[in-house]
């Protein structure tokens, strides 16, 4: 890791960019600010950055005062109250009557990166699993109730491609109840902000591309597959001119990964404390999404991964090496500190429940952005996507958990 300071990115030029970004932020209701500090990190692949750096989500639920909210109460399967129930501790139950919650082919805005059935997957059982907490039930997802709750508001997912998958899931969950003339999708901010609009409700469900939360040279929503990542851990000013990241006059200093992660989150938390309207905003932070790159971790042959997997991991409490508990503790510490400063950010701990779902990834069943080589075709393990998730699938449950918190808080 390298820390960048100075170079051609002068104070005057930086202030001009900040002013321009602030003007853009006012129209989008997304405020950005930052400085010229940066950190550089070298990874072997784009997948590695998703796995080891920032697989996180921030969700903004904008609320209007005086709005009467509908309450949905989770039914309890024991004497424990829903407030004491740990929604993240439970098991997966096969349910081919109630699930999937929507059909892949019927979702108007399905992503080819996640449309596993479209790209040849034959085993559809990954769509039929329901998450069952140990001591209570998740409320049934009701698209009409959610849109009514979001009337005149914005639900914004901010993060990387995994976060974008959760956004696509949420759009698909509400898409089917809206007539074609009463919904729309458009992009702005050079493609960084994608907005699904439910016109009748004046509600939007949005995704803002910010893979590392702080400013980085992978902020371009299209051209972000770079071999060497540079992040400015003190900057949340979005999408500064790219040349500053490759400044030959820059000064770099090595920094350990976990420390970089903490520095970035501290910058993010400081920005939230200053800019978030606490009477109108609910904040959620989604924990690390696990990967299934090493089949030996669940007892299969070494050298394999999620390719050809059709069953879940049955071992309760299974934890793969791709999910770093130290990074999760950093998140918890940052959120606890924010709570002490009067700003509550709810953690949606999806890591453990997602660890079991080794069969839920696209594997080879997705759009390939580049033509496959003969070597890849001969070895499907080598290009199987064991990071993202098929839809319908696991991210729908993440959104069911989010739905429960939206109505309970």
Stretches where pLDDT is under 50 for at least 5 consecutive residues are 1-58, 62-82
Helix content: 25-40%
Mean pLDDT: 78
Spatial shape: globular
SSE-based structural type = alpha+beta
Counting DSSP H or I runs of 4 or more residues, the number of helices is 9
The total tally of domains equals 1
Whole-angstrom Rg: 21 Å
Q: What is the number of E strands?
A: 13
Defining key terms:
409 residues, alpha+beta, 7-stranded mixed sheet, 4-stranded antiparallel sheet, 9 helices, 13 strands, disordered N terminus, TBL, O-acetyltransferase activity
What is this entry, summarized?
26% of the residues lie in helices and 16% in strands.
Q: What topology does this entry show?
A:
Blueprint: E1 2-4, H1 11-28, E2 38-42, H2 46-52, E3 57-62, E4 90-94, E5 129-133, H3 143-149, E6 154-159, H4 161-175, E7 183-188, E8 193-198, E9 203-209, E10 215-216, E11 228-232, H5 257-275, E12 281-286, H6 325-340, E13 345-348, H7 351-355, H8 374-378, H9 394-408
Parallel strand pairs: 6-9, 12-13
Antiparallel strand pairs: 1-2, 2-11, 3-6, 3-12, 4-5, 7-8, 8-9, 10-11
Helix pairs in contact: 4-9, 5-6
Domain Trichome birefringence-like C-terminal: 240-404
Membrane topology: Single-pass membrane protein
GO molecular function: O-acetyltransferase activity
Structure description:
By secondary structure, this protein is α+β, with helices and mostly antiparallel strands. It has one domain (90-242, 253-408). It has 9 helices and 13 strands. It has helices spanning 11-28, 46-52, 143-149, 161-175, 257-275, 325-340, 351-355, 374-378, 394-408, and strands spanning 2-4, 38-42, 57-62, 90-94, 129-133, 154-159, 183-188, 193-198, 203-209, 215-216, 228-232, 281-286, 345-348. It has a 7-stranded mixed sheet with strand order 7-8-9-6-3-12-13. The protein has a 4-stranded antiparallel sheet with strand order 1-2-11-10, with helices on one face. The chain is globular, with a radius of gyration of 21 Å. The chain starts with a strand and ends with a helix. The model is unreliable at 1-58 and 62-82 (pLDDT under 50).
